[in-house]
Design a protein that fits this description.
heterodimer; A: about 120 residues; mainly beta; 4-stranded antiparallel beta sheet; about 0% helix; B: about 110 residues; 6-stranded mixed beta sheet; 3-stranded antiparallel beta sheet
Chain lengths: ~120, ~110
């Protein structure tokens, strides 16, 4: 059974930093591109970042470019999101998601971890 | 910001048919990229509903169907049921390097 379990979400002050983690199991982790998707309270889904199976390619939404860094450790079946210079508008539930094939759909999602940026 | 536009809400009585549109552009749906749909029940993570424009994953009832034409796609729910009340999102690939994956703005389906 595929499982994605996010962790690391907390309350942090504006300008602060945070690292989210996603532990994957039930599939061959290093075969797949992985993503972070976020959802602000009461709002829609926003794609944040992706990383290729080997970590060689990464992409970011304009809203987080230069502040967030996605990474993965295939030996630990884990995905990460380093979040720096946090803003109040980064407050959201952050989901990690597995992509089925290159440039395709998200077939599995985690339950999300809540990041609150507030003074 | 979303580049795929959906109506904010649609509603229907039990048993009725409702449709949700997803309008994109020449850099995503219009470029021939597939559209996928997700259902998000209250307080839960999104769940894949339709992939590759019109395919249902195992376990998704056949009252859900998808289609695509030009720069738009549609999700139809026939025989609407109370448990279909949820938020629905379309998603596609975009040729923009700054946001290669894009979601729709989301549609709330209300069962009257």
């Amino acid at each position: 059974e595929v499982q994605l379990v996010e962790s690391g979400g907390v309350v942090v002050q504006p300008g602060g930093s945070l690292r989210l983690s996603c532990a994957a199991s039930g599939f061959t982790f290093d075969d797949y591109t992985m993503h972070w998707v976020r959802q602000a309270p009461g709002k829609g889904l926003e794609w944040v970042s992706l990383i290729s199976w080997d970590g060689g390619s990464t992409y970011y939404a304009d809203s987080v470019k230069g502040r967030f860094t996605i990474s993965r450790d295939n030996s630990k079946n884990s995905l990460y999101l380093q979040m720096n210079s946090l803003r109040t508008e980064d407050t959201a539930l952050y989901y990690c998601a597995k992509e089925r094939d290159s440039s395709s759909w998200f077939d599995y999602w985690g339950q999300g971890t809540l990041v609150t940026v507030s003074s | 910001q979303s580049v795929l536009t959906q109506p904010p809400s649609v509603s229907g009585a039990p048993g009725q048919r409702v449709t949700i549109s997803c309008t994109g552009s020449s850099s995503n749906i219009g470029a021939g990229y597939d559209v996928h749909w997700y259902q998000q029940l209250p307080g839960t993570a999104p769940k894949l509903l339709i992939y590759g424009n019109s395919n249902r994953p195992s376990g998704v009832p056949d009252r859900f169907s998808g289609s695509k034409s030009g720069t738009s796609a549609s999700l139809a729910i026939t025989g609407l049921q109370a448990e279909d009340e949820a938020d629905y999102y379309c998603q596609s690939y975009d040729s923009s390097l700054s946001a290669p994956r894009v979601f729709g703005t989301g549609t709330k389906v209300t069962v009257l």
